[in-house]
């Protein structure tokens, strides 16, 4: 049997494309929610560490070590299968009928958010500390409170410094949503698997899948490059 | 109304166990120009920064136009400190303009945020002061597109636009190329002539003589000697002052 003769890209394209396009919503939704959560967590962790409260700093460092020392896939599996059970156990201390579950999508978004939040916190922290201290003082001297100076003067400059890096993390997260397949989120990989096993169009299906990710990430990478140039113009 | 603008009583400041300011008393009258000079590391910047509480004194009091930053035996109130800082303009050695804003926006931002002025009113005031420092044509430039001297003049306009009661200058020309020093000194000189109360730290002795109503010589965290410029430069009393003047005039 000659594999080459049996290749049927047109059919695979016709049938798989609509399926992938449906999955696209999930990929973009998970990335959007996950990244928003990551930004929020990352900013809080960064500010917590900058605040120089020793105990808080220690606790945050432990969290960072745990998250960076374990694979994202394991974290996602843990978030989907284990965390709801742990919460159920604790809840049943009060109410024996208590049961807690997370939908695959929610667990995935939380897992991605925490994982990326830890990495982003370092990006945000170094961006904030790289803003000249004189900026903060100039704002104080004009009558800004500490908080106003931080949020209105320092953080906007830090965001400019960090934005291109954020862009690269978004692209990474889009690709990492493929891991959500392992916790039964029907994103692109899971859909492709299902299609390939039905039709035996293995080469065609996974090639198209890879192309789909490229189509998503290449333009974004270009946008990041343009952004990088524009934002650093006046810094 | 009393005619004292800045009153400092027994001001001390330590960093860790290192005492930098060792009990300073100073009174600046309304409209007076006081110039602080002294060797590097003598605590001039630290003292100036204590005047608007960018450094929080370890002990002692600072009063601006009769208002304490922190009343004796009371706790520091951040809002009150910020409000009082608004009344004092400060110009830094390294300009510290906000790089993401144009010159105009730099001068407008705090007026709107802190003085709660409308955009139109802030813009009008900003244009007035940018014109005053000779930069009306450059108001839509970003700091990175301006020379050091121009940036410092924008920084002065930004401080003036808050209509402060007094201005602090910490070596406002030290970071400038020599040919740009003059344009900044001219702006400060003009301000002095208009009667602004000012405390200046500078290494420009000629300028100090010219604008200062009083010279204060600091060394080792204390005021060693002070006096009228003529008196101070021609008939210094203390040995340390004599040695310093000799050094800077050669
Ligand atoms: N935040 C700080 N922490 C620790 N030490 C400090 C701090 N700020 C200043 N100092 C120390 O205080 C001393 C006085 O510094 P200051 O900047 O006030 O001197 P200065 O008279 O302005 O000197 P220069 O003419 O070089 O500007 C220096 O020894 C400096 O190292
Ligand atoms: Mg200094």
From TrEMBL, chain A:
<protein>
    <submittedName>
        <fullName>Polar amino acid transport system permease protein</fullName>
    </submittedName>
</protein>
<feature type="transmembrane region" description="Helical">
    <location>
        <begin position="205"/>
        <end position="224"/>
    </location>
</feature>
<comment type="similarity">
    <text>Belongs to the binding-protein-dependent transport system permease family.</text>
</comment>
<dbReference type="InterPro" id="IPR035906">
    <property type="entry name" value="MetI-like_sf"/>
</dbReference>
<dbReference type="GO" id="GO:0022857">
    <property type="term" value="F:transmembrane transporter activity"/>
</dbReference>
<dbReference type="GO" id="GO:0043190">
    <property type="term" value="C:ATP-binding cassette (ABC) transporter complex"/>
</dbReference>
<feature type="transmembrane region" description="Helical">
    <location>
        <begin position="20"/>
        <end position="47"/>
    </location>
</feature>
<keyword id="KW-0472">Membrane</keyword>
<feature type="domain" description="ABC transmembrane type-1">
    <location>
        <begin position="20"/>
        <end position="224"/>
    </location>
</feature>
<dbReference type="GO" id="GO:0006865">
    <property type="term" value="P:amino acid transport"/>
</dbReference>
<dbReference type="InterPro" id="IPR010065">
    <property type="entry name" value="AA_ABC_transptr_permease_3TM"/>
</dbReference>
<keyword id="KW-0812">Transmembrane</keyword>
<keyword id="KW-0813">Transport</keyword>
<keyword id="KW-0029">Amino-acid transport</keyword>
<dbReference type="Pfam" id="PF00528">
    <property type="entry name" value="BPD_transp_1"/>
</dbReference>
<keyword id="KW-1003">Cell membrane</keyword>
<dbReference type="InterPro" id="IPR043429">
    <property type="entry name" value="ArtM/GltK/GlnP/TcyL/YhdX-like"/>
</dbReference>
<dbReference type="InterPro" id="IPR000515">
    <property type="entry name" value="MetI-like"/>
</dbReference>
<feature type="transmembrane region" description="Helical">
    <location>
        <begin position="101"/>
        <end position="120"/>
    </location>
</feature>
<feature type="transmembrane region" description="Helical">
    <location>
        <begin position="59"/>
        <end position="81"/>
    </location>
</feature>
<keyword id="KW-1133">Transmembrane helix</keyword>
UniProtKB/TrEMBL annotation, chain B:
<dbReference type="InterPro" id="IPR030679">
    <property type="entry name" value="ABC_ATPase_HisP-typ"/>
</dbReference>
<dbReference type="InterPro" id="IPR003593">
    <property type="entry name" value="AAA+_ATPase"/>
</dbReference>
<dbReference type="GO" id="GO:0015424">
    <property type="term" value="F:ABC-type amino acid transporter activity"/>
</dbReference>
<keyword id="KW-0547">Nucleotide-binding</keyword>
<feature type="domain" description="ABC transporter">
    <location>
        <begin position="6"/>
        <end position="245"/>
    </location>
</feature>
<dbReference type="InterPro" id="IPR017871">
    <property type="entry name" value="ABC_transporter-like_CS"/>
</dbReference>
<keyword id="KW-1003">Cell membrane</keyword>
<keyword id="KW-0472">Membrane</keyword>
<dbReference type="GO" id="GO:0005886">
    <property type="term" value="C:plasma membrane"/>
</dbReference>
<dbReference type="InterPro" id="IPR027417">
    <property type="entry name" value="P-loop_NTPase"/>
</dbReference>
<dbReference type="InterPro" id="IPR003439">
    <property type="entry name" value="ABC_transporter-like_ATP-bd"/>
</dbReference>
<keyword id="KW-0378">Hydrolase</keyword>
<protein>
    <submittedName>
        <fullName>Polar amino acid transport system ATP-binding protein/cystine transport system ATP-binding protein</fullName>
        <ecNumber>3.6.3.-</ecNumber>
    </submittedName>
</protein>
<dbReference type="InterPro" id="IPR050086">
    <property type="entry name" value="MetN_ABC_transporter-like"/>
</dbReference>
<keyword id="KW-0067">ATP-binding</keyword>
<dbReference type="Pfam" id="PF00005">
    <property type="entry name" value="ABC_tran"/>
</dbReference>
<keyword id="KW-0813">Transport</keyword>
<dbReference type="GO" id="GO:0016887">
    <property type="term" value="F:ATP hydrolysis activity"/>
</dbReference>
<dbReference type="GO" id="GO:0005524">
    <property type="term" value="F:ATP binding"/>
</dbReference>
